[in-house]
């Protein structure tokens, strides 16, 4: 293939190839030529000749399209004059009558060339246009399907190229191409008559085309019709004076008529109406529905916003028309069509503000239907006032409006709050009024709308629940009220599972009481018995959705209700069947069906409560429920209720484990399955494309599924009112009961049948062929030959699973041979396709069957079938089966790779485009082949290179296909190829192609594009971004582009040009509704951001996020100036909301903007691990001048602005994201100094903005989660130290103070809106914030008093003491002191709650029955989470407060404390605690703090717990700094030892140096406490007056220490642990010594024996030295760092007292260690010792005056020191000289001592020999050297 990469065709190489290789060679050359033509010089004549040769060489479809493009491009870039000759030549070929096999491909190629030439050259060929067109239209009359298809494509291109020049022939083309929708779509660009005079005719033509159409035809026709209608409403060309308003009405009448009458004329429609027949099929109505969407989408969101009232009126007329709702099935289809139109237009085209206005219009439409509702309220007999037709019409209108209203509100979220407060719409009143409508569908739609409101705005859930419950009680005598309000309460309670804030726990009790009351009173009034029964069980089902935390309190009552609704025994049920009328059985079946639905909900939502005990109590009701299925109800008129009852039984049994009811009802179960005669088709998901279009891959699934029979379509909310309780947030569409029953039976069969099989197998032995195999095989074989594709798929799946279950290799082979035999003999396409698929399905479940011979046989059969061009269906199915075999054969298939590639490529080049399903199956095969080869595709061999080239050629062919599914498969293949061989995929070509399809109208194509982009950006994000921009340059701009395409082109061009591919993805994310695709887009953006945000595109990403966040039509809350002194530095005006319409984004939704804020947080986190300059202003500014690099700190203003905008938005979710971003900003930037203003930090300039961003979170209507997050930000802001002025600090402090007041008022405020756990969350968040503020205030105060003191580990390192203002020390503490009395009691209460909640499960009974101070007994599980995240700072703050009070209890209880915030054992506010002494209260507090801290430190969690560990340690330090708790701990040796054990474990499990230092500090305090205790005992015992020293502490007379009980041993163990972890060389065990233990025990015994009689507490010091000197082993195997060891000994000697240092063993061991080290040959040890030893020796020297009068001991020390100096000086001359030179005073002292010593020697010599005295004076024989320099 490399020889094909040239400008001219290598004819010699081409001639040497076979036919199939030659086709591939030519296609490869044409592909390469397409790239070369614009960039190289061309030999035009030679190229024209070669291309002409290809033209007459019978090229296949891909080759002819590429040939036509290259030929036209050659003439456009070169000399266009000869193009007319080429046009004539192509026309001659078309006119020729060549009927040979090669003639048709040549004619088709000529047609394609004509289209490409006119498209590229345009008006230059206008002269020959008429003749060419006439020739094409004439040829089309006698052409076959491929010829007509190609001619219409050519005509479409001709129209596109000529534009207005083709106007004279437009009508001729229109007449000839009335069935070619793409051609008409191109024609309408210039042919104005199509959307003026011929509009009605074209519309009728389109309506008729919808009849019996498939999905692709409906999409194409709907696109044409919608575009024409849009052009009629807003003409693209001036067409004189046109009444646009009248035209709009005409267009809407056309659409309405098409939906109601289809393509029939007036007379036929009228006749059908008189006959009562239905003339409009589902195809037509679904096609018209799609045309509606195209019509509005083409006109755009602005037109929709202006004309929505009129458009809504049209839709309401459509929904209420009697012809559209003749039958229930028609009504369901109509409602779904209207809902689809509303959702596709309002949900996709409008921004949040426009959606709010649309919601108001929908509300007005609902209000307009109040006539029927008011009549129902006034009189129960509605027929007297309102006709049944009016009621039916109103219910359909209300259902459509309310369901869309719910969708809009749910999408808007909390931004929809203004709707509820707008008095002009009476939003809630209007919706609630519909609950009294007599039609169930309207009641259920209103209930679902209320559920959406509760999900969007949780603060209204409880209020709406109370309102509806009150109305239900007040109107429970009205059937409509009971049904409507019962459904509303059900929907509202079920909404709680989507609301994290919940509802008050008491609401569950109220709902259950209401349900019981309805069930009890159901029999009192027969007129409303049915409604009360259904409403009661609806409420119970909804109650169960609240989860185990609520249901477990009411489970016994629920079981009683279930047992009451069923007979007490099977015998009672038998007698029950012999009595009862229609009404009695109707109510009975309704009640039992409701009870079964409640049981089903219990299994779905509270399965852990379905224990064995509950199961045993429900066995009898279950047995009765199943037994009733086998009995016939006396009255056959209740068949509908019987179906519903049977459905509920099946659904419940499918969820229960089969062993639950094994042996209980075997007769009933056995008869149950004999009734399973209707099985829906079951297919593997991968086989569904064989049946038809994959609905899950389209945007029209909501309506398209209505065409696939009752087994899929026909869903409506009123089919099953219990679907209001579903977990899904989408509108449920339960199937009609008969259809749902069949589906439930299948699920139950699948759950129970294996259990029955295994049970029978265990009793009868293995199941033989005569039992199951033969009948099953016969049944499935017959189904494989069915004409129904769905049945064939199901049969193939069933046959494969049967083989899998049997597990017999012989049976597997026999089934395979059966398939082979049938394929040899079968001649019909259905049988051949079915057995071909069965071969692939066998591989799916048999693991490849492991036989190469079998594989070869199978491939031979499938290869033959796949080449049967006479039957595209057989080709499609066999190729699909081949892809399964390739996928599952693993390494066995490698040998068949080349022929498979050749087959796939050959078929791709020859298969006609009229059968896209064949191309799709070929794409599956190519994808499987690429996966099979895998990493081998990276090899460089000739064979692999050829295969890789085949892959690329095949992908290119599929990319050129006009079918979206084939294009999506091509992208998937390229994605797979890029994964295995990235260098061989050209991103420069792939990425622009992906971007071109990014906004495709086909969901499957968008999914494939985004999935491929997600993979590409994980490795080459920068390259992908750069290649995406090239799309803007390559795609041509056209002025005559249709309206719809203009919008898509703007998205591609403008967005990518201005903000790159990232901006296009953000736009797509905002408009996309598919959840899976949204997730893929988000992951793609995250990968792109993480790859490029810190590599040069930081500014681009931040600007992009800022633009996304600013793209809203709403207004932000601007910073209000509540304080008079805020104006002096308030720059919040820079953060006021303003219109951002000039930006690249418009009206983005809150979810997209929230994701942008999450991206900002990710960018900050990534910069944290990148360059230090990102968080250093001075360094960033310096480096910015030297290099073109961007840094995060330079964008701080934008970061704060974005956080402010998000934190003040109307959306609660966006506010949370904004506050989180603000918190991250504070933590990361608070310590960065401002270079221009020394002593200040860069965040100081944003003080006012931070306060303004926080203020809305503390308003009265702020949600608790927002306030809790704001409290966290407040504490971080105060603790950061940014604020240097107390007045500025007071603003944020006031916010916390207001929250504290809110906490003191108790949880009554929240009880009406949210769950009690939310009050716990907010209260603990406030207390935690105050605790953090108090901790930082105390630390600043201490730092100011003692600046040299090291910082507390629990204090953030961001603390700034640069300011000497009052806030740096006592100022902040003074602010906190005013509330400290209240806070201390609240803190203690929170700690007591936490201590109780952390008790083991077996102590649950000890929890208070009424709950704690801040939680209720019913919300224990929810509260634990909040306590776990808040207790550590509260513990630390409480310890600091107790430290400040010295454990002295004061009686200053705050007057405004409305609830007993202090627990009974903690303070003075309760009656019990008043009887306790201060000593007892203090003991309780001490043990509370110790217990919490020690319990946590014993088993700290591994993730993110370092801050909590540090808080615990510092809390214990603060306690032990006070004498009273220190005395308590010193007096309790067991407690002290336990503390040391915990600290030792913490040292072993944590590597943090800060934790180790804190542990050592605590160790020192614990030892100090023990020392103080010993001293106190001495003083109390009068030890000073006694002659003998009493024994206190450990050791006593033996000196023995008991491990585990000895404080000394624990302290030594901990010290050794620290030393060994920091200095591993000290451990002989680590150094390889195994005899250390024996020596250690011996040395310990010697030490203890020699220390008898000494003060026992000194054992700690002595034993510390002993443990250190355990490393003083003389063993040569022991490697010890001498310097570190001597340093440790030196520190000990300096720290210990004289009584320790002078002890003989210590004294001796230390001297031995120093002596041995001085004699060491280590060049590092000896000089350092000399530097210390020589000054000591010099300090012992005496001068000549002192020497004479010195005592004997001092004189002896002087002489010994001088002697050592004389000896060591020459040995260590370097050290000696350095010492003397650097210390003049030592030099003088040494010289004086030498002179004194000399004189002393002379005096002695003179006295000993007087005769030589004079001679010695005159001439000394020896001169003493005094200068050692």
Q: Report the end-to-end length measured between terminal Cα atoms.
A: 88 Å
- What level of helicity do the residues show? 55-70%
Main beta sheet = none
Rg, nearest Å: 45 Å
Low-confidence stretches are 266-271, 273-277, 664-681, 762-769, 1036-1054, 1114-1142, 1348-1367, 1453-1473, 1631-1678, 1811-1829
Strand content: under 5%
Characterize the overall form.
globular
Number of strands: 0
The overall pLDDT average reads 80
Structural class: mainly alpha
Number of helices: 81
Detailed description of the structure:
- The protein is mainly alpha-helical and 1829 residues long.
- Among the domains are: 1-187; 196-299, no CATH class; 511-648 and 688-733, no CATH class; 1591-1719, no CATH class; 1722-1807 and 1823-1829, no CATH class.
- It contains 81 helices and no strands.
- Helix 17 (328-349) runs parallel beside helix 20 and helix 48 crosses helix 49.
Main features:
1829 residues; mainly alpha; disordered C terminus; ARM-type_fold; Laa1/Sip1/HEATR5; ARM-like
Question: What is the structure about, briefly put?
Answer:
By secondary structure, the protein is mainly alpha-helical. It has 81 helices and no strands. Helix 5 (83-95) packs antiparallel against helix 6, helix 15 crosses helix 50 (1043-1071) and helix 50 packs across helix 51 (1075-1092).
């Amino acid at each position: 293939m490399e020889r094909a990469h040239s400008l001219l065709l290598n004819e010699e190489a081409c001639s040497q190839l076979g036919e199939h290789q030659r086709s591939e060679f030519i296609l490869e050359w044409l592909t390469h030529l397409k790239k070369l033509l614009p960039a190289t010089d061309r030999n035009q004549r030679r190229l024209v000749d070669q291309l002409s040769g290809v033209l007459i060489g019978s090229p296949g479809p891909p080759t002819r399209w590429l040939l036509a493009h290259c030929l036209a491009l050659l003439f456009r870039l070169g000399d266009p004059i000869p193009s007319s000759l080429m046009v004539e030549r192509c026309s001659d070929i078309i006119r020729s009558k060549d009927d040979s096999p090669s003639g048709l491909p040549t004619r088709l190629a000529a047609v394609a060339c004509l289209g490409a030439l006119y498209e590229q050259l345009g008006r230059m060929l206008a002269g020959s246009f008429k003749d060419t067109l006439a020739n094409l239209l004439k040829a089309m009359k006698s052409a076959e399907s491929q010829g007509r298809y190609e001619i219409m494509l050519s005509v479409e291109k001709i129209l596109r190229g000529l534009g207005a020049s083709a106007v004279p022939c437009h009508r001729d083309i229109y007449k000839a191409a009335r069935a070619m929708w793409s051609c008409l779509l191109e024609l309408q660009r210039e042919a104005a008559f199509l959307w003026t005079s011929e509009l009605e005719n074209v519309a009728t033509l389109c309506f008729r085309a919808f009849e019996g159409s498939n999905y692709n035809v409906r999409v194409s026709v709907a696109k044409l019709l919608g575009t024409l209608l849009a052009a009629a409403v807003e003409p693209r060309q001036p067409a004189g004076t046109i009444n646009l308003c009248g035209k709009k009405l005409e267009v809407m009448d056309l659409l309405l008529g098409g939906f109601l009458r289809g393509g029939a004329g007036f007379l036929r429609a009228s006749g059908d109406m008189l006959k009562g027949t239905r003339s409009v099929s589902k195809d037509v109505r679904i096609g018209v529905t799609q045309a509606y969407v195209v019509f509005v989408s083409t006109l755009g969101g602005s037109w929709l916003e202006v004309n929505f009232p009129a458009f809504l009126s049209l839709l309401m007329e459509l929904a209420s028309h009697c012809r559209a709702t003749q039958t229930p099935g028609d009504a369901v289809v109509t409602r779904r069509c209207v809902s689809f139109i509303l959702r596709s237009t309002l949900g996709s085209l409008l921004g949040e503000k426009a959606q709010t206005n649309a919601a108001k219009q929908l509300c007005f439409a609902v209000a307009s239907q109040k006539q029927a509702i008011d009549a129902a309220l006034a009189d129960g007999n509605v027929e007297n006032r309102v006709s049944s037709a009016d009621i039916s019409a109103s219910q359909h209108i209300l259902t459509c409006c309310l369901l869309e209203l719910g969708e809009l509100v749910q999408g808007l979220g909390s931004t929809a709050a203004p709707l509820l407060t707008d008095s002009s719409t009476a939003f809630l009143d209007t919706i609630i009024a519909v609950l009294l409508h007599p039609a169930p569908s309207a009641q259920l739609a209103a209930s679902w709308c209320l559920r959406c409101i509760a999900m969007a705005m949780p603060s209204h859930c409880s209020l709406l629940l109370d309102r509806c419950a009150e109305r239900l009680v007040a109107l429970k005598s009205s059937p409509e009220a009971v049904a409507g309000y019962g459904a509303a309460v059900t929907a509202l309670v079920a909404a709680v599972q989507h609301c994290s804030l919940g509802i008050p726990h008491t609401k569950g009790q109220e709902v259950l009481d209401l349900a019981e009351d309805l069930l009890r009173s159901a029999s009192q009034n027969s007129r409303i018995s049915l409604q009360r029964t259904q409403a009661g069980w609806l409420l119970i089902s909804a109650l169960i959705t609240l989860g185990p935390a609520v249901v477990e309190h009411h489970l016994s009552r629920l079981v009683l209700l279930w047992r009451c609704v069923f007979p007490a025994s099977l015998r009672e049920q038998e007698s029950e069947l012999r009595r009862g009328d229609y009404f009695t059985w109707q109510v009975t079946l309704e009640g039992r069906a409701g009870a079964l639905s409640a049981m089903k909900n219990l299994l779905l939502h509270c399965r852990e409560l379905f224990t064995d005990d509950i199961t045993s109590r429900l066995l009898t009701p279950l047995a009765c429920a199943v037994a009733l299925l086998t009995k016939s109800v006396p009255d056959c008129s209740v068949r509908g209720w019987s179906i519903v009852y049977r459905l509920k039984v099946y659904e419940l049994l499918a969820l229960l484990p089969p062993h639950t009811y094994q042996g209980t009802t075997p007769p009933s179960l056995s008869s149950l399955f004999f009734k399973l005669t209707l099985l829906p088709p079951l297919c593997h998901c991968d086989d569904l494309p064989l049946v038809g279009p994959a609905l899950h891959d389209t945007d029209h699934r909501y309506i398209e599924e209505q065409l696939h029979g009752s087994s899929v379509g026909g869903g409506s909310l009123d089919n099953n009112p219990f679907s209001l309780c579903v977990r899904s947030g989408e509108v449920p569409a339960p199937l009609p009961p008969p259809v749902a029953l069949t589906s439930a039976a299948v699920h139950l069969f699948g759950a129970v049948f294996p259990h029955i099989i295994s049970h029978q197998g265990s009793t009868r032995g293995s199941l033989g062929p005569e039992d199951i195999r033969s009948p099953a095989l016969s049944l499935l074989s017959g189904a494989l030959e069915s004409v129904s594709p769905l049945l064939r798929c199901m049969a193939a799946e069933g046959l494969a699973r049967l083989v899998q279950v049997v597990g017999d290799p012989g049976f597997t082979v026999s089934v395979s041979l059966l398939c082979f035999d049938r394929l040899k003999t079968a001649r019909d396409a259905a049988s051949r396709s079915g057995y071909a698929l069965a071969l692939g399905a066998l591989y799916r479940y048999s693991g490849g069957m492991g036989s190469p011979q079998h594989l070869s046989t199978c491939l031979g059969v499938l290869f033959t079938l796949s080449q049967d061009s006479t039957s595209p269906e057989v080709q499609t199915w066999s190729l699909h089966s081949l892809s399964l075999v390739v996928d599952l054969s693993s390494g066995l298939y490698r040998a068949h790779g080349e022929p498979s590639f050749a087959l796939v490529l050959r078929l791709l080049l020859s298969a006609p485009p009229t059968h896209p399903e064949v191309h799709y199956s070929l794409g599956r095969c190519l994808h499987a082949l690429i996966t099979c080869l895998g990493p081998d595709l990276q090899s460089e061999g000739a064979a692999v290179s050829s295969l890789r080239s085949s892959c690329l050629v095949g992908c290119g062919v599929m990319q050129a296909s006009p079918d979206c599914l084939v294009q999506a498969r091509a992208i998937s293949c390229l994605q797979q190829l890029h994964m295995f061989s990235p260098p061989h995929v050209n991103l420069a070509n792939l990425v622009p192609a992906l971007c071109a399809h990014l906004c495709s109208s086909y969901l499957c194509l968008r999914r494939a594009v985004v999935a491929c982009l997600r993979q590409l950006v994980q490795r080459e994000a920068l390259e992908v971004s750069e290649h995406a921009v090239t799309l803007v340059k390559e795609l041509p701009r056209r002025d005559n582009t249709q309206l719809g395409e203009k919008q898509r082109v703007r998205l591609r061009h403008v967005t990518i040009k201005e903000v790159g591919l990232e901006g296009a993805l953000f736009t797509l994310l905002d408009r996309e509704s598919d959840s899976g695709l949204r997730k893929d887009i988000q992951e793609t953006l995250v990968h792109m951001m993480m790859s490029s945000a810190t590599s040069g595109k930081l500014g681009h990403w931040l600007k992009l996020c800022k633009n996304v966040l600013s793209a809203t039509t709403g207004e932000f809350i601007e910073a209000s100036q509540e304080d008079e002194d805020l104006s002096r530095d308030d720059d919040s005006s820079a953060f006021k909301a303003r219109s951002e319409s000039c930006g690249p984004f418009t009206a983005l939704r809150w979810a997209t903007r929230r994701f942008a804020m999450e991206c900002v947080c990710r960018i900050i986190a990534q910069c944290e691990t990148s360059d230090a300059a990102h968080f250093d202003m001075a360094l960033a500014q310096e480096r910015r001048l030297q290099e073109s690099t961007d840094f995060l700190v330079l964008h701080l203003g934008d970061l704060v602005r974005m956080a402010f905008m998000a934190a003040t938005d109307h959306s609660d979710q966006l506010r949370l994201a904004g506050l989180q971003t603000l918190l991250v900003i504070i933590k990361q930037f608070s310590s960065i100094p401002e270079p221009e203003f020394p002593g200040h930090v860069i965040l100081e300039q944003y003080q006012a903005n931070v306060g303004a961003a926080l203020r809305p979170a503390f308003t009265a209507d702020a949600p608790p989660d927002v306030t809790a997050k704001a409290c966290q930000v407040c504490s971080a802001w105060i603790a950061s130290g940014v604020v240097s002025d107390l007045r500025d600090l007071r603003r944020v402090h006031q916010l916390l103070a207001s929250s504290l007041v809110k906490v003191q008022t108790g949880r009554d405020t929240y009880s009406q809106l949210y769950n009690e756990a939310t009050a716990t969350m907010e209260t603990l968040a406030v207390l935690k914030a105050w605790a953090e503020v108090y901790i930082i205030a105390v630390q600043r105060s201490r730092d100011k008093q003692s600046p040299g003191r090291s910082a507390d580990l629990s204090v953030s390192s961001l603390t700034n003491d640069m300011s000497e203002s009052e806030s740096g020390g006592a100022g902040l503490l003074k602010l906190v002191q005013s509330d400290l009395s209240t806070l201390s009691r609240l803190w203690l209460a929170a700690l007591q709650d936490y201590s109780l909640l952390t008790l083991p499960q077996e102590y649950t009974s000890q929890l208070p029955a009424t709950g704690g101070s801040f939680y209720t007994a019913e919300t224990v599980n929810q509260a634990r989470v909040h306590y776990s995240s808040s207790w550590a700072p509260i513990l630390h703050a409480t310890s600091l407060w107790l430290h400040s009070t010295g454990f002295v209890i004061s009686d200053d209880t705050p007057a405004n404390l409305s609830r007993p915030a202090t627990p009974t054992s903690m303070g003075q506010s309760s009656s019990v605690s008043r009887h306790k002494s201060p000593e007892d209260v203090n003991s309780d507090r001490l043990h509370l703090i110790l217990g919490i801290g020690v319990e946590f430190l014993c088993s700290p969690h591994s993730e993110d717990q370092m801050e909590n560990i540090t808080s615990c340690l510092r809390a214990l330090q603060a306690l032990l700094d006070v004498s009273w708790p220190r005395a308590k701990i010193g007096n309790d040796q067991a407690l002290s030892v336990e503390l040391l054990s915990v600290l030792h474990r913490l040292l072993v499990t944590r590597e943090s140096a800060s934790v180790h230092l804190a542990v050592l500090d605590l160790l020192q305090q614990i030892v100090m406490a023990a020392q103080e205790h010993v001293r106190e005992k001495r003083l109390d015992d009068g030890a000073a007056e006694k002659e003998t020293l009493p024994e206190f502490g450990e050791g006593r007379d033996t000196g023995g220490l008991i491990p585990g009980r000895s404080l000394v041993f624990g302290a030594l163990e901990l010290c050794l642990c620290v030393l060994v972890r920091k200095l591993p060389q000290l451990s002989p065990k680590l150094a390889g010594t195994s005899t250390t233990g024996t020596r250690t025990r011996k040395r310990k015994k010697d030490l203890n024996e020699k220390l008898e009689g000494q003060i026992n507490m000194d054992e700690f010091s002595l034993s510390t030295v002993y443990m250190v000197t355990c490393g003083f082993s003389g063993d040569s195997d022991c490697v010890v760092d001498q310097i570190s060891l001597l340093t440790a000994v030196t520190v000990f000697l300096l720290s210990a007292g004289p009584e320790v240092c002078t002890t003989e063993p210590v004294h001796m061991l230390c001297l031995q260690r120093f002596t041995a080290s001085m004699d060491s040959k280590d060049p590092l040890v000896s000089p350092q010792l000399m530097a210390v030893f020589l000054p000591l020796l010099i300090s012992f020297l005496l001068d000549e005056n002192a020497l004479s009068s010195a005592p004997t001991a001092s004189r002896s020390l002087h002489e010994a020191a001088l002697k050592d100096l004389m000896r060591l000086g020459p040995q260590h001359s370097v050290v000696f000289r350095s010492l003397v030179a650097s210390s003049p005073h030592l030099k003088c002292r040494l010289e004086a001592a030498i002179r004194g010593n000399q004189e002393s020697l002379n005096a002695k010599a003179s006295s000993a020999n007087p005769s030589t005295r004079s001679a010695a004076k005159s001439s000394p024989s020896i001169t003493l050297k005094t200068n050692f320099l």
